Amino acid sequence: MNKIKLRMSIATLLATLACAQPAAASDFAERAKATQPQHEGQLTVAGLKQPVEVVRDKWGIPHIYAKNTHDLFFAQGFVAAQDRMWNIELWRRNAEGKLAEVLGPEYVERDRFARVMKYRGDWDAEFRKYHPEGPVIFKAFADGVNTAIRLALTQNKIPVEFELSGFKPEPAWTPQTLLSRMPVWAITRNASSEVARALAVKSMGLAKTAEVMITDPPTPLRVPEGLDLNDINPNLLNITRDASDFDFKFKAAAPTPKISQAFLPVRGPESGIGSNNWVVGGRKTTTGMPLLANDPHREVQNPALRYWVHLVAPGWNVIGATEPGLPGVTIGHNEHVAWGFTILNGDQQDLYVEQTDPTDANRYRYKGEWRTMKVDVEQIAVKGAPSERFEVKTTIHGPLVYEDAARQRAYAMRWTGYETGGHGYLGSLGLMQTRNWKEFTAKVENAWYGHHSLVYADTKGNYGYVSTGLTPVRPNWDGLFPVPGHEGKYEWAGFVPTSKLPRSLNGERGFYGSANNNVFPSIFPNQKVPDFTFEYLTPYRYERIVEVLSQDRKFSLQDLSRLQGDVASLPARRLVPLLKNVTSDDPKLRDAIQRLLQWDYNVDADSVAAAIYEYWLLKLNPLTYAKKLPDSVRGYNRYDIRRLIQWLEQPDADFGANPNQERDRILLTALEHALANLSKLAGDDPSKWTWGSIHQARFTHPLVTPENAPLVHIPPVPRGGDSQTIQLTGSARESGADQGIGASVMFVFDVQDWDRSVGLNTPGNESQIGSPHYADLAEAWGRNQPFPIAFGDKKVKEVALQRVTLKP
């Protein structure tokens, strides 16, 4: 069968559209229109106790007004399923390990890993850990989703995405579905870097690995006593990485061909995915009250990852963003407080190498004796093939993620995600009802177990920073390598009390911020900080935030919104001046050098110099790293721009007898390769090499076909910035072309008047094909032009577009 590539070029797409039959496109549009859910009038909904009003505004945000807690979260689940049914059906299947049931055998491995990640503790304690009414909230939300699915099945109004996919949604949601650990895995894992570091030491020794792979804060590398590096199987790297990086491929459901990629869970911290947040105190704002900004970053995708919702009931009044398969909001504000987060990249995992019994693979050695693993049997249904029986084996350290029968080794994962309350985001259910700093920090301590940097503001004028997360105490090792499990020498000694983690209120500097970096030396210069991790992201976004917010002036809400779109590159300020003494006989190279030296270091979408710089940087990495890596290492691509800058600014003996001369040769060679790449990509006229014409966000839907492309296709959005600018727009591929990651949602909250707050989502707040809110926000997101976030009753009425009453 024919297939359509996910990342098709503009020319290919236009040709595809030209070949599509207008009648077929029209027919598809009619089918999509006929399956839209009811958003106006009255709708009878089984399971409600009292009527619920749902007001959808001009930007597709549902404002849900209920009379009790049960109905509020039931309605949220119902509405989320109306707006995102196909999206959350795949979210559920990914969470529960049931993708192979509808996508086929190639997803069995993915399903196995989801079963390994499953929480297997006390469910009642788990539900209550996030909120005292947790059992009610989780069941109500799941019931609401199931009711929306049943209604769509009964009314024959299943979204057209299911027709294209070849399967139907199932009303199979449970409270346990919502507490899947798969979304958490993406934000807490470092097992893959443990494996990568061990393999690097095996290939090039401790000294070279320490030079190439940065630790922050700096710490000497030590292979844990008793660890045999020969036990570190390279296949482990695939297991830990592929759990979050995978292609979503749909088998063609006749007669329509289709192909797509994953838009659900995303890569972990080592991919460069990050977030920004900051809060500015009243003495530095034009309002005299705090302003709070946040733009969490994930993969650019369609359907969107985030979902805006407003929840109102007795005791509840909160608006913000969540994932559509989760109750409540994860970031947002209520009537009293606002908060935003960035991932702190804490080390919350350890990989244990277990010695297994040669005569019985279910036994492992621990402290001189053989123990039997706990075995849970899982049955995985597979489309077009027999179901598969899968055993989840667990040692004292955690479930196995890999077994090496030849060496009698098994690899167990110890992870905070397995702890009660270990979901990364749902601790926000407690934050949603807090009224002040004391209540907020108390709730953070209870269940916010993923490592995050939270910024805070309240209507009393307070602003603060809170670090949070379940932090293992490792008495005699640092977590940078896998550890042997058989002797019992490397055991967690409990957790650092959350109340002991760094926090600050109303600091003298007048603002707080974070960007996935090590913020502690800046915010807490005289305080000893627990060893969260040694793998923070680069500091350049944070340094730019501090550079701007330290200016002696007052900031408006519009200033902070513009700062979210800031594209000043601090690395460019360091790298480009190195070209001052580089010369060439080639006029094209001389012209490129001149453009770069005259550049203002802003990676603007309309800048030619920015495009030259980005491709130059792309080529600099392998050429420079080649000077530092032994000949035995090939294909290394864990580049770190911090090392690149250091090595090029201060070239050493690895660069040869004349380090500066060899450095300059590398700078020029990389530029030559960059120009050749740009010429091939965008033609021979440099004046047309604008960064935005090359670097674009493409919201390609996984189910795009020639028939539906006129309705489903979203025009590509030109983008400025890169992976080191505040407007983070890193590429997903080594080509350096399309934007792969960036802000999944954005907002700036004004605590003096909540209705002055602004925000963005992309490409739309709803995802159902044919919805007017399927892609209505993509262009504004590309221009960094937010819309008003209505909160008060009067403001919501002003922007209301549709109103439906859900009746019991």
Folded structure, characterized:
The protein has 808 residues and is α+β, with helices and mostly antiparallel strands. Among the domains are: 341-347 and 422-540, 4-Layer Sandwich (Glutamine Phosphoribosylpyrophosphate, subunit 1, domain 1), CATH 3.60.20; 570-602 and 608-689, Penicillin amidase (Acylase) alpha subunit, N-terminal domain. The chain is built from 25 helices and 30 strands. The strands form 5 sheets. Strands 1-30-2-3-6-7-8-9-17-18-22 form an 11-stranded mixed sheet. β17 and β18 (463-468) form a beta hairpin. The longest helix is centred in the N-terminal third of the chain and has 28 residues, at 69-96. The chain is globular, with a radius of gyration of 26 Å. Residues 1-22 and 244-271 have low confidence and may be disordered. Heterodimer of an alpha subunit and a beta subunit processed from the same precursor. InterPro entries: Ntn_hydrolases_N (IPR029055), Pen/GL7ACA/AHL_acylase (IPR014395), Penicillin_amidase_A-knob (IPR043147), Penicillin_amidase_dom1 (IPR023343), Penicillin_amidase_N_B-knob (IPR043146), S45 (IPR002692).
